[in-house]
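Our collaborator T.R. sent over the components below with a one-line note: 'Predict the complex.' Nothing else. No constraints on interfaces, no templates requested, no preferences about which chain binds where. So this is a plain run: every listed entity goes in together, and whatever single assembly comes back becomes the starting point for the next discussion.
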Amino acid sequence: MADGVAGPEARELAAEIVRRLTETGQTVAAAESLTGGLVAAALTDVPGSSSAFRGGVVAYATELKASVLGVDCGLLDEHGPVYGPVAAAMAEGVRKRLDATIGLSTTGVAGPGPADGFPPGTVHIAVSLDDDTVVRTMALTGNRDEVRRLAVERALGLLLGRLREERA
Amino acid sequence: MADGVAGPEARELAAEIVRRLTETGQTVAAAESLTGGLVAAALTDVPGSSSAFRGGVVAYATELKASVLGVDCGLLDEHGPVYGPVAAAMAEGVRKRLDATIGLSTTGVAGPGPADGFPPGTVHIAVSLDDDTVVRTMALTGNRDEVRRLAVERALGLLLGRLREERA
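Returned assembly:
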């Protein structure tokens, strides 16, 4: 962590996100499962991030996705936490509960073993912004650290992509 | 982040914490301000941490300390977020709201500049366990990254110290 907590890729994405949000007066909140706080850590790594980053919820235990983020229990019971619509509901829930203009979420399997019936590297990320929510599903490869790091980069990348679209 | 997200010191503390909690059936939840998700990230860096780590709240915006963690508004209004009793209330609040047996919290000033009337490195951490809450206040030195990293290590160290006391 000598050069900060995030890798160079995540640092660059986070800095650009904070810059854009600050310029436009938007704010983001993060709901994380497999990334366990790393998305929040990457964003708060940027000096001055407090104007753009509201905060986050690390909902590691599945039931916290319902009790803290408001994800529908039926959805979790039927499909488990590793599911695209759960990522969408997490992003929408954290946006609402933490009173941010944008919600960002991650859920999936970091490894080393499979979980909830899915192999390590199965990851869903979502961004809730304006009147829509986009979910991206991916199969990442690598060990636990690599899967977590890649999931952070993809989540920040998805958010930055949406912010760029908005300005286009 | 090639060797995980936490430095070697935090990794070692986190692994020992997860091992002890798993053995005793206890669980921890984290409420973070200046560390911005790094305490949660260090704990979830440990494979198998899902049995011991419930989740966390990154309450970066001051009002989230009240709305999400239940910290008394009067306390925040009168003293601001960089205050020992706020750290205590954050640890107690996250323990209760995330239904964990232990709450761990951090609040303070990462820098680079002063905030809320305190110089960078002013940090309060707290552990709520059984019927008591311990708060430790410190003046850390270093840049923003170093202050955040040291605060994570001190928070994990305070928790591990309490766990060792319990077993003694």
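Summary for T.R.: The helical segments of chain B are 8-24, 38-44, 62-67, 73-79, 84-97, 144-167.
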